[in-house]
Amino acid sequence: MPRSLPSIRTVAVLLLLVVGVVLSFAFHATAGGASVTYTATAVEPGENPDLVARAAGNVTDLDERLADTPERHRQPIREAAATGSYNGSLDPELDIVVDDIESPYVRYDGRYYSWAISTAAETTNATIRMEPTDPETVFDAVARPVADAPPEVRTAIAEGSATGFTVAAGLYEQDGTYYAVAAENEGAVLAQFATLIAGFALTPVGRGYTAVALGLLAFRHRDPNRDRPLTPRRAAASAALAVPIALAGAALFESGAASWFLTGPASAFVVAAGVVAGVFAARGQWLRLLGVSVGTALLAGTAFAAALGVLGVVFGTLAVLFGFVTGVVPFGYGYWFARPLPED
Question: What average pLDDT does this structure show over 57-80?
Answer without folding.
Answer: 92
